[in-house]
Amino acid sequence: MKLAVFDFDSTLMDGETIDFLAAPLGLEEKVAGITEKAMAGELDFFESLIERVSLLKGLPYAKAEEICRDLPLMPGAYELISELKKQDYKVVCFSGGFRIGTTPAKEKLGLDADFSNILHQKDGVLTGLVGGDMMFGFSKGDMIQRVQAMLGAKVEDTLVAGDGANDVSMFPYAGKRVAFCARDILKKEANIIVDEKDLTKILDHI
After folding, report:
1. 28-39 helix and 45-54 helix, angle to the nearest 10 degrees
2. 3-state secondary structure of 140
3. How far is 149 from 166, CA to CA, in rounded Å?
4. Distance between CA 136 and CA 148 in Å, rounded?
């Protein structure tokens, strides 16, 4: 069994979901600043996630869903996933972002599964609270081991790709470790580096 695990924000999707969600509130710049520090490894991921999501309080959930249905996928996403499927990879998405973004992308791209977080809403409005599978800096490394055990996928048959600090934890469990338009903290752990916004470039290394 071959397994490919992709980060969502700034990897499969061209941008950060939470930045798009903050835009209608006029908080995109503030949230983006925190996101950048978190992805560079300068902030604890859990603490930064809690802080950023709290700023979304009051956003209508329907508006959040509308935004997330139309997130821009990274150039080459469709072609890459299609080719990996032809090569018998199980392809999944791990995201420190949100299910309302990853699930529509999963359906568009034909991914096998998505693991991400849930934005809490009450009476149709975001409460500023969040919970889910990918809350911590170690979450992706923890989850990839579970998925590998379930599928019977070996480290040498696993490919991972991401761009930021919260992707580091899954890199020890993959033979192919792709830093895609990534921060230095992730490039140091990678054995494949792609600095062009074109996911098909990953195929050159498979």
Report:
1. 170
2. helix
3. 21
4. 19
Strand segments (E) across 1-157: 2-7, 89-98, 113-122, 125-132
Q: Which two tokens stand for residue 140?
A: 């992706």
| Edge-to-edge strands, sheet with 176-180 | 125-132, 113-122, 89-98, 2-7, 158-162, 176-180, 192-194
Q: Is 7 a catalytic residue?
A: yes
> Any catalytic annotation for residue 14?
no
Q: Are 34 and 43 in contact (CB under 8 A)?
A: yes
pTM passes above 0.85: yes
Which among 9, 114, 133, 167 is annotated as catalytic? 9
Question: pLDDT (tens digit, 9 = 90+) per residue, 31-83?
Answer: 889 888 888 888 899 999 999 999 999 999 999 999 999 999 999 999 999 99
Q: Which of 7, 114, 133, 167 is catalytic?
A: 7
Tokens 């996101």, located at residue: 35
